[in-house]
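Forwarding these from the shared drive since the link keeps breaking.
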Amino acid sequence: MAHEGLWEQLDGLDGAETARRADCEYLDDPPRYVLTLLSTEYVVNPSDRNIFAVGADSTDQPADFLQQLCLLAYLINARDLPLAGKLVGENALPGGQFFFRGVHGLPTRRLQEAFADCPQALLEISGRFGAKDCEFGDASIRLDMLPRVPLTIVVWRRCEEFEARASILFDKSTAEQLPLDALLAGVNLAVKALTGTVDEDS
């Protein structure tokens, strides 16, 4: 089974206390967590070790590998802390300068390719995910990846003097909520959702 070690860790935790830390809901009979990842509601069932997304039409969609990783790691690690209110790049997170390299680099190129010629499209698409507009770059949004893990995505338009650029910024408290591998998984899911929506609209 995928993520068996994470399920075992979750089994050892108190459900109500875990939900309080993670700012989500815990229900009994059967015991389960209900929490939101990228504006989609998921149900995490420790008893039979499955996770599914609750569809708008009441159909249940099994969570994929990365979604499971994000949700389980978050439930295990989340802390009841306020946001620091300070944005930092990935290298400023503890261990980030060593982790976010090579194949573990942030997917900023995909954002550049999708939005550099029309940054406004980022703002238009982000509304589908409950994101809020920010005032950085040519377009920027704050997207709640998980209840205590916001992402700030910034895009600069391509012009004669400068190449297109994109940045993904984190609240300084993010490392308190998620290990870096789960954070990267969540970022990849977020960028895939945003850029995939561009493809659908084009």
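-- next protein --
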Amino acid sequence: MSEIQFPLSVGESPLEEARPVRHSQQTMTQLMTPLDGNLRGSVFGGVILAAVDKIAYVCATRHAGCPTVTASFDQVDFRSPIEIGEVVTLEASVNYVGTTSVEVGVRVMAESVSGGDARHTNSCYVTMVAVDEQGKPKAIPKLILEDETQHRRYLDARERRRARLKLAEERRRRRESRGLES
């Protein structure tokens, strides 16, 4: 097997333009306040998902060079609760680009406001679609992978995309076989 030569341009876009992963990587940090929490002192999952959606938007929009909209959240895994008063840091990176869509991986870490060890609290993958002024899907630049980690993430994201498309097709066939509209 031959070794991959980096940088490597990937993606399904008809555009010649390509951008490296680092071009759009984002980090966002915020303090969790009582307004973010439930009666048990933990942060609502929806608050974290809203923050994930925001950072995914910025990351995808920077890569696309135009507005993006959320198409799906995949594999949202909550590993441990986040407490009120903790600092949450989200890190986002483009893993995959299609013709008009971008998969953004988001990792969420939490730590005491006074410092100490940060813990990985959850991760997920967000698919965003680039849109033009009329809200129609728009082609986006290809992605430039610069190392093995980015390449592994790209391959994993490509497999997730295939699984999503296969599942969507299976659902469509089941609806049609029952005489239901899409």
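Helices lie at 45-64, 148-177. The mean pLDDT is 94.

- D.
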